[in-house]
Specification:
The chain is built from seven helices and four strands. It is α+β, with helices and mostly antiparallel strands. The protein has a single domain, classed as Nucleoside diphosphate kinase-like domain (Alpha-Beta Plaits, 2-Layer Sandwich), CATH 3.30.70.141. The protein has a four-stranded antiparallel β-sheet.
Length: 133
C-alpha cells in the first residue's frame, strides 16, 4: 500500500472542516493510519517548505501555517498520492474544480485549506519530518 502525507492547514481547522475532509478521505476508501492535531514549530514548517525558501511568498506561507493548529495525517491506499492530489484540487482555488476540497472550500492561494504530498519522494520526506520525532 502506498502512503502519503496530508495536512489540514490552520484555516481548514479554524473553519471546522476537519470532519468533512477526513470523511472524504475515508469515503474514498483510504485509511488514516497516523494523525495528530497540533501547532507545529517554526523549524518544522521551515523544513517542510524549504524548497520555497527563496520565493517571495515564503515568509507569508510560513506565518500562515504557524497561525493555528494543523491536522497532520498519514493516509494509506492504492495510488493514494495521485488520488489525494486529484481530491485536493488546484493550488489556486479559482482554478480548482467543484467537488475538490479546494474547489468547494478554499478562497485564497495562501489560505487553501489542505496540503498533500506531490510524489512518493515528497511523501516519504514529509511523513518522516512530521511523524518521526
Amino acid at each position: 500500500m502506498e502512503k502519503t502525507f496530508v495536512m489540514i492547514k490552520p484555516d481548514g481547522v479554524r473553519r471546522g472542516l476537519m470532519g468533512e475532509i477526513i470523511g472524504r478521505i475515508e469515503k474514498k476508501g483510504f485509511r488514516i493510519t497516523r494523525a495528530k492535531l497540533f501547532r507545529p514549530s517554526r523549524a518544522l514548517v521551515e523544513e517542510h517548505y524549504k524548497e520555497h525558501r527563496e520565493k517571495p511568498f515564503y515568509e507569508e506561507l510560513v506565518t500562515y501555517i504557524l497561525d493555528g493548529p494543523v491536522m497532520a495525517m498519514e493516509v494509506e491506499g492504492e495510488s493514494v498520492i495521485e488520488a489525494m492530489r486529484t481530491m485536493i484540487g488546484s493550488t489556486d482555488p479559482k482554478e480548482a474544480l467543484p467537488g475538490t476540497i479546494r474547489g468547494d472550500f478554499a478562497y485564497s492561494i495562501t489560505e487553501n485549506i489542505i496540503h498533500g504530498s506531490d510524489s512518493a519522494a515528497s511523501a516519504e520526506r514529509e511523513l518522516k519530518l512530521w511523524f518521526d520525532d
